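Let us practice reading a record.
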Amino acid sequence: MQCRFCKTELERVFIDLINSPASNSFLTPEQLNEPETFYPLKVYTCHKCFLVQVDEYKKSDAIFDSNYVYFSSYSTSWLKHASNYADKMTERFGYNKDSQVIEIASNDGYLLQYFLQKGIKVLGVEPTANTAEVAVQKGIATVVEFFGVALAKQLKSQGTTANLLLGNNVLAHVPDIVDFVGGMKIVLATDGVITMEFPHLMQLVDNNQFDTIYHEHFSYLSFYTVKQVFESQGLEMFDVEELPTHGGSLRIYAKHKEDSSKAISPNVAAMLAKETAKGLNGLAYYDNFQQKALKVKLDITEFLIDQKRAGKKVAAYGAAAKGNTLLNYCGIKSDLISFVVDANPHKQDKFLPASHIPVVNEAYLKDAQPDFVIILPWNLKDEITQQLAYIKDWGGKFVVPIPSLQML
């Protein structure tokens, strides 16, 4: 395998999570008796540009199809994040009715709806037809297609360019990151701004977030490496922020290299210095991650077996992709976790891939009254513990598996 950015032959394994189905390949009852396709989940570190990456074992157009089950609007904290972002960008850059905002991977319109409410023109680009349909019902014009150089040229030929071009948690999802960033260069207005948010590789390593590795996350990104990718396409970083979302993310700000209207923030040099001090541009930093993941595997399986022997009932909350990575790496099945609750009706009445744990609604949880509820999307633990605080009425306890097993 070659590095998807610099084409260096990859030799260093970052972590091997063995084999599993694609993490959002939820099953219907009829599919439970059919064979499942498992793909390798081996991650490499490029020793030249330090892009951490998984091969495209399952093609992106097979992952992001009309059966895609992730809808962004089912998290209240994520909607609040989107609303705050729209306010901040409008205030900082002065967008108005004459501006054009384009979001790549716009999902169900969770974010663009807030710009639309301000009277700003919006356009979504979203490859999954079912989520795009929900956005269209909200009045958000949406192109159902993958973004890259070809689509960018088409949009520009139609007179569409972006004053604000944004993408939240999409940069890691593209197999051809050079074509993707090259497309942004084309469709960005002369004085336009790009913002991208993505989970920060530094947080993944430091906080043992190995469960955020799955087949639709093709790349795991540091600021050091992303800056190189953008520069290769004539784009320049002018600011960066650290965010608490998804266990610790970065929001980068980029512009055309030729655009001198925006000063380079001191944050850029500070973030590079922070990563360098941690060692992200050296191979030693990426060693021993396999052992950290193994400890979580041993701890959670031991906990579940102990509860089973004690006659306790264990459930989970949040049928998240990261939860499927955790469960499948640990070999956990429905005999150890009875069910998983999720607010998304598109996931309910289905089964998790490989583990075959049933996905149910919240009413089921109240009836079953489990002794323990494992929070799989640990990045939303505050939201979830508040929402489900009533489990303490019957003596229920919350368990969080990452970065290490913890009972709340």
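A brief commentary: Residues 96 and 118 are 8 Å apart (CA to CA).
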